[in-house]
Amino acid sequence: MTPVELAELAQDLSFEKWTLDESLLAMPDPTRDVIDLRGPNAIIGAHATSSLSGSAVAAFRDRVLLPLLFGSAWKILDLIVERAWQAKGGPTRPQIAQKAQRTISHPDETTSIVCGDPQMLGRILAVYRNTSTLRHALVHRRVSRLADGGLVEATGSHLSRNEILAFCMLSRRLPEVVGRTIDARTGSELAWHVNLLSRVHGEQDLPDAYAPRPIDIVKVAAVDRDGRLTVDMDRAKGKASSVNGGFPFADLQIYLPDRETLAIECRLEDAPDGAEVCLQTLARRLAGTQL
Predict the structure, then answer these.
(1) Which of 130, 174, 259, 288 has its CA 20 to 30 A from that of 152?
(2) What is the per-residue pLDDT across 185-238, written as a single tens digit (0 to 9) for each?
(3) Model-level pTM?
(4) How confident is the model at residue 25 (pLDDT cuts 50, 70, 90)?
């Protein structure tokens, strides 16, 4: 797709994404750990994150909004598939059955626009195809609610509450990666949601999948070694891993030796290993990847 076509697609997806963002974020957010290594002893505290609501709003979402959220999530996939085909000369208004068949015969069309990972996108497209009957029944008000709040239609096609939420969490991230290369953090989150939908797509779980969680903040101070500022990245990575149970992602803040002046903000996983990493070399390496 051309840059103009990608921009138009992002605009067309914006309402569904906004709907999912506003509704799915209506849940209590846990705090982020702050791992302060600027001194000789590690100090671990909490950094509050915003919370839009509590259990009452989440319950309202599940009881009232879940069918609408499923429809928005499905529409995001449908638009992506449709525009990918149209970029290759496809029809202006293809039928859903035609689009579903196209994802089987030409899956590479969609892979080149979003995700970029054939294995992951193959599973996502299978979810799209395998939920089309349920979506059709929803549009025509022929669905019933499962005991857990999920949806089912007359022929038995169904999604549980947790599957709908996983589908929504997956779809809301896709507009963010249209035309872009997926980084490790986003890929691990998408893989997690895709794996939660394994009953729907019928494939094995993807590797390197991590449940979404608040990203911890690691603070370190550079040390002046005969006029050369260095950072102990091995200590930073080791402490982060021990605090967050092996979760591989964290935000990194590097301060000058005064422990007050912030020099670099980046992702911890982007920084190299080493007990004496040169701050100047680190800054050059991380140029363009800082937060």
Answers:
(1) 174
(2) 999 999 999 999 999 999 999 999 998 888 899 999 999 999 899 999 999 999
(3) 0.82
(4) low
